[in-house]
Each structure stands twice: as structure tokens, then as C-alpha cells.
UniProtKB/TrEMBL annotation, chains A, B:
Residues annotated to bind DNA: 40-59
Keywords: DNA-binding, Repressor, Transcription, Transcription regulation
Residue stretches making up the HTH tetR-type domain: 17-77
GO molecular function: DNA-binding transcription factor activity; transcription cis-regulatory region binding
Keyword DNA-binding found: yes
Cited Pfam families: TetR_C_24, TetR_N
InterPro entries to which the protein is assigned, alphabetical: DNA-bd_HTH_TetR-type_CS, Homeodomain-like_sf, HTH-type_TetR-like_transc_reg, HTH_TetR, KstR2_TetR_C, Tet_transcr_reg_TetR-rel_C_sf
Coiled coil: none
SUPFAM superfamilies in UniProt: Homeodomain-like, Tetracyclin repressor-like, C-terminal domain
Species of provenance: Enterovirga rhinocerotis
Protein name: TetR family transcriptional regulator
Amino acid sequence: MSASLWKTPQQRKAERALKREAVLRAAARAFSEQGFHGTSLDDVADRLKVSKPTIYHYVRSKDDILCECVRLGLERLDAASAAVAAEGGVATGLDRLTVLWTEYAHIVTEDFGRCLILVGEDPLPPAARKELRTLKSRIDRRFRSLVETGIADGSIRPCDPRMLAFAAAGALSWIARWYDPDGPLSPDQIARETVSFIVDGIRG
Amino acid sequence: MSASLWKTPQQRKAERALKREAVLRAAARAFSEQGFHGTSLDDVADRLKVSKPTIYHYVRSKDDILCECVRLGLERLDAASAAVAAEGGVATGLDRLTVLWTEYAHIVTEDFGRCLILVGEDPLPPAARKELRTLKSRIDRRFRSLVETGIADGSIRPCDPRMLAFAAAGALSWIARWYDPDGPLSPDQIARETVSFIVDGIRG
């Protein structure tokens, strides 16, 4: 049958999206392991066992790749925080933050989340940096506002919401630095234990 | 008197040390604000209002400067942790960690501590990187062993000492990312509040 020999436009589009993600993922790993300045597009091509021109079929430049990797990491945090912030119902601020912080811990063990923390937007040109920082600020504000909700409903003890949000972000982001995918601890165990250190210290 | 016109060798030596530290401090600030790759020795010279050749009178290269800045940051942590670890007396593990974590928070608001966290040894050639990582591991082990002491004496609840040491290091190191010397919060307030988030969650 022809279907097995010639792909439909939809199949080609899906395949292209998959290949582009594979390029970004390989680059995110390389940036996290070797640093942005220590990684060439040849390194990324080598990891995928393709040629450098093949890479350029999916991305424009090394800057373009990092921008996308950081954006994908931030979009995971943005979606997770938007979902928890929008939640109605009776959950306290602290309960909702517990869910969100647990998700945060998982995200920073993944390729794009790890690249977001270990490399971030700093090496990018001003325009890209500005755009990503705007997204970052929105996420930061959402975390802070959930802390404020928790203080208001009594589930979190009175404290400086900005400092608590930063302390939690630091404890969780640090996971990206020490997490070893081949090590004995699963992302789940790490998330549970790290979140418990934060949560147990701030109950109202 | 001749003493006011010609300096003694001791005075010359002291002055040289002061000037070298000024070079390192200006570089540490530039690296933290602009990134290592975004900083040239011309930038450092500009900050000190001297010429680049003057800088070379005190340091060999940009790598040499970063290596010294990171070492100075690590030496502050090393000295603080060694002092607390060596302490005899009746203080519990948690009390000793409270002192040490508070000191840690102060160190990462200072020029060399900030550079240690924000830039670190990653951009350096393998030999320098290895040397600094050895020092880092020694400090890490000391933190972990104090957590173990606290669990053993009952002042810290049973938990994974490695994960607790990392969570605390993350919450505290993150201060280097958001602390603003011109902002309303003093290092002292930041240290007290951040350490309380950690300590209150782990009591035995």
C-alpha cells in the first residue's frame, strides 16, 4: 500500500516536531553537562549521530536552541503554577503549594528544567533574555501569591512571603545540581523528602 | 622624614596585597553581574579606573582571577565549617548547624561567595576545576556529618542527611541570586529568616 511508502502531510509534520524535540533535548543535556559556552553544535550533532547541517534543518542557532530549551522548562513551571493557582475548592494555600513544589522538584530533574536552572537565560542576547525573564517573573509572582494565600488562611505561619518563596525555589532548584539519573534516588523520593523539609518548617 | 617618602618592604608588600584583593573583588563583581564569558579584563580595569597592563601586575589571566575568586569564597565556607565542626562543648548538631547556616547566608551575600555560587568553577580548565571541587567536597562532607551528628543526638528528626544538607545549601545559595545590596533587606535579616525556614522543619 502507498500509505507505507509515502507519508501524509500530518505524519511529516508530526515527525518533524519529534525530531526537533530530539535536537532540543540533546542540546539541553549537552548544555547542562558541558555548559553553554563549552558546547558546540557539532557536540549536539555527535550526540544525535547526525551532521551539523541536519541540525540546522530544525533550529537557527545555538542561541535559538538555548532560548527554546529555557522556554520549555519555564512553560512547564508556568503551566503547573497556573493550574494550582486557578484551582477552586477548599485546599489551603499550603496544600496547594505542597502539590506545586512537588511538581517543581520533578521538573528540575527533567532535561529542559535542568537546563533552565543550570544554564538559564543569562548567556542569551538582551531581547531573548528579557522575554524569558518576563515569563519568569510571572511564575515568581504566582508562587509568592500562593504563599500569601497560605498566610492569610492560616496554613502558613506569618513570614516574609518573598523570602519563603525564594528559599523554597532554592532548595528545589538545587536538585538540578546534584540529581544523578543513574543514582539510587528517584525523582519521586527526592521531591517528597525535599518538599517535606520546607513544608514542615512553615506550618501555621 | 624619609619614612613618609619611601615605603618599607613590609608596607610595599601589604599595599600590593590590598591592590591584588581590589582587583579580585572588582572581577568577582563583574563576573557575578555580567557572567564570566561576558566579562573582559578591560571591564575589570575600567571598574578600577586603571589600565589592563596594571591588572596583569597582580594576576596572570582571567582564568587565574576566577580560580582565586572561587577559592576565596570556598575558603570562607571551609573556615566557617571547620570552626563549627571542631567545636567541643554541649551544643547539639542542630544548634551548630544553625550557626553555620547563618554564616553561610552571610558569605553568599559577599563578593567572593556570590561569585562562587553564580559562576563557580565550571568555566575553568580541568586542573583548576578539580582542585576547587576537592575543596568543595570536603566542605560538603562536613555539612553532612554535622547533620548526622544532629540526627544522632536527637536534635534533628530522622531524615536523609545528604538530601537535608543539599536542601539547606540550595535555600541558602539561592540568596546569591536575589540579594540586592541596595534593597531593603539586610544580610542579617535574610540569614535569620531563611535559616528559620530550614531549622523549624527539621527539629527532632
